[in-house]
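Field reference: sequence -> structure
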Amino acid sequence: MKQFLKQYSYQFLGYSGVLPFALFCYGAYAFSFHPVVGEYSLMMQMGYASMILSFLSALYWQKSVIHQKFWAQVTCLMPIILLLPIFYWGVLYDKGQSILMMIPLFWAVFVMDKIMGKNDGWPKGYYLYRFNLTSLVTICLFLSYWVSL
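Structure field:
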């Protein structure tokens, strides 16, 4: 059991991290008739997506600084730089559009992960796992956008 948890703990934690996306999506759908709770669910979806994007794009920051790779540093910062106006657009104008604009950022971080981490010794099947997570997040975000219409 200990070996199983050690080997698959990252997958368990990753799929657990998708649950809030699904719950906020369901909350936005279930309370779409209620102006405050439905909007709050969309705001939470937007905030949680921003937090996860910030975390994922910062994974290679230390590596890029240690090896003094300027373009790697720019690549790590780009999703966060693009995320700020998208987040504020959602706060000030339209949460659904902001959520929809975050989907390409998740895919960009996936591509960044695949390019920058190819020689990092990830476990077998890691990129399929990341692809599955990104796909699930995309579905949840798109459904949240659809509910916001």
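Note: The mean pLDDT is 86.
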